[in-house]
Amino acid sequence: EGMKNFIEISNARNITGRRGIKAVIHEIHKDNTQYNKNGISWNEQYTLDNIDTVKGMPICVEFLDQDKSEPFGHGQTGIKDGRPLFEDSVMVGVFEEASIEELTIKGRKIKALVGKGYINEQRYPLFVRWLIAEMHDGRQPEGSVEICAKSDRETIIYDGGWKEKGRVPQIYDYTGYCILGVEPADDSAVVLELNKYHKKEESLMNDKLIAELNDKIEAKTKKINELQN
User: Fold this and answer.
1) H-helix or E-strand containing 45?
2) What pLDDT band is residue 208 in, cutting at 50, 70 and 90?
3) Residue 59 and residue 25: Cα distance in Å, rounded?
């Protein structure tokens, strides 16, 4: 029932070439005894303190295939001057605004940082088609946020210092959101909505296309398993 509430195709008007998107950037935790799989505990006040940096934050993808249709990981290639580089990923869109919302994700009621923006459909049409097919089949594409130290600081500042589990980012910038094809650190970071596709695009969602996309997803899963083994 919760999935019906949040997996939807919005009727909002779409600017030509921009496919509107709404996604959970990260869950907000009640305290630092709760944290994601990377050990990060997101505090509501610190999220609000840094929320302005979501505006203009790139939405990125490391593509699994040359046809640029399906996502893989973050595309990280190393660290330079204390900051990570993601040269194997590309910017497919941008967030234009953000807010804190209470919603139900995968049957859990949570508070989360939610971003709204768009995917550049003219440059990544097959990726948009993949997103539509995933949501059409009742799946929620998953993502992962990237943060970094502010430009005038060398490192991210954590409340109470860095710790492996339950570290709380306090002073930082939101620098990227990667839509993933691998398991995310935050299971709540999912795509919530895409702008409604036009009538002429409905033919994309026929049974033949869905079957083809499902075959590609199975092939992608097999390739990911091979890369990880």
Assistant:
1) helix 44-50
2) low
3) 10
